[in-house]
Amino acid sequence: MKVLRKKRVFAILFILFLVLLFYNSDWLGKLLYPIRYEKDITISAQNYEVDPFLIAAIIRVETNYNPEKISKKGAIGLMQLMPDTAEWIVKKAGYAEETSKLLHRADVNIEVGAWYLNSLYNQFGSNKIATLAAYNAGPGNARKWLDNGTWDGTLKNVDQIPFGETRHYIQRVLYYYDKYVDLYKYQFPA
């Protein structure tokens, strides 16, 4: 009985050792934080001069790479684009009219989402944090918070954002962004 107990303890210690050994490895990190649709993300990021890690982090937070996801509010696809916003983007960007009907396709959703991110980035003076707030809460809300002094557009003061969902969203996207930059900096072109 004592021998069996010692073997169990040894096995548990060995497993813990292996977990610690691989805890900081890129292999385990990439297993826990995969990036899917790399080619589509890379192409769209290059087309619209958007950080591919930011696109990947938004997709991870929005849908965890599930292209079939539709939110309770009706947002569609990997980047969870609202149909009205997608229609506006299609007109503004000069895409073919049927583009908005293809938002369930990963490549189309990423392309339209990257265009929108670039647009928001330009609207908010290249402020990544304000861009993320606008992506989640809408540019009207983000602009209002900045203009009336409710929020200064910094991560340091993200707790001043009136919408708890948006505060949490920004923090989650930045968490995955940092993970992706750390894990994929040499394999996923920035």
Automatic annotation (TrEMBL):
<feature type="domain" description="Transglycosylase SLT">
    <location>
        <begin position="44"/>
        <end position="151"/>
    </location>
</feature>
<dbReference type="InterPro" id="IPR023346">
    <property type="entry name" value="Lysozyme-like_dom_sf"/>
</dbReference>
<dbReference type="InterPro" id="IPR008258">
    <property type="entry name" value="Transglycosylase_SLT_dom_1"/>
</dbReference>
<protein>
    <submittedName>
        <fullName>Lytic transglycosylase domain-containing protein</fullName>
    </submittedName>
</protein>
<dbReference type="Pfam" id="PF01464">
    <property type="entry name" value="SLT"/>
</dbReference>
